[in-house]
Write a structure and sequence with these properties.
Number of helices of chain A: 0
Order of helices and strands of chain A: EEEEEEEEEE
Distance between the termini of chain B: 40 Å
Oligomer: heterodimer
Radius of gyration of chain B: 13 Å
Structural class of chain B: mainly beta
Strand content of chain A: over 45%
Radius of gyration of chain A: 13 Å
Order of helices and strands of chain B: EEEEEEEEEEE
Shape of chain B: globular
Number of strands of chain B: 11
Largest sheet of chain A: 6 strands, mixed
Distance between the termini of chain A: 33 Å
């Protein structure tokens, strides 16, 4: 497709379970970003991938959060032992290269009961 | 990381009115981006600014990169119902992080 896609669009889970969120960036985009958006708030940067370089994990809120990306394709954000405060919309963005404007996917709405 | 302050937090206007919102920072930004987010969607890029003093238009939208590099504004002329949404300013997070830092948004509500 032409834009960034994310799956699932909605995820409801029980506290303590692990979840995996997927992002398909725009084809040819080398940079990929994950953000978290709590209700009524702006976006918080989580993690960034650029090509095969080591990811910038400076925004990850705890060691329960991790992400992987294979080459310049799909990325997966994993949250282990989910907590209620993890409830948010998780947005993925990609850009052609670092420093260029980022284009966002529709997000995954995560609800932890 | 750097923080962005957006104002106003929300705006209630009549269709056809012009809109002005701004974004300020305590530190210098080299890039300003303006995004619009509709309910249930990801933010959509409206305008990107790369140079102090730059004034850029996109249809009825105009944005400026402040001379001090610590502020930016976004104007919307002759508002229409589809302008409803949340407008975010964003810039490089700084502090070694590669992501963007976002303001908390201006919620635009248009009364027909």
């Amino acid at each position: 497709g032409a834009g960034v896609s994310q799956s699932p669009s909605n995820k409801v889970t029980e506290k303590g379970k692990d979840v995996e969120l997927r992002c398909d960036p725009i084809s040819g985009h080398t940079a990929l970003y994950w953000y978290r958006q709590r209700l009524g708030q702006g976006l918080e940067f989580l993690i960034y991938f650029q090509g095969n370089s080591a990811p910038d994990k400076s925004g990850l809120p705890s060691d329960r959060f991790s992400a992987e990306r294979t080459g310049e394709s799909v990325s997966t954000l994993t949250i282990q032992r989910t907590q209620q405060e993890d409830s948010a919309v998780y947005l993925c963005a990609s850009s052609l290269w670092t420093g260029l404007p980022q284009y966002f996917g529709p997000g995954t709405r995560l609800t932890v009961l | 990381g750097q923080q962005l302050n957006q104002s106003p937090q929300s705006m209630f206007i009549q269709e056809g009115e012009d809109v002005s919102m701004n974004c300020t920072s305590s530190s210098i930004f080299n890039t300003w981006l303006w995004y619009k987010q509709d309910p249930g969607e990801g933010p959509v890029l409206l305008i990107a600014l790369y140079k102090a003093g730059e004034l850029t238009s996109n249809g009825r939208l105009t944005a400026q990169f402040g001379i001090t590099r610590k502020d930016s504004f976004l104007n919307i002329s002759a508002s229409i119902p589809s302008d409803v949404g949340i407008y975010f300013c964003a810039g490089p997070a700084g502090g070694g992080a590669d992501g963007l830092t976002f303001g908390k948004g201006t919620h635009l509500i248009i009364q027909p």
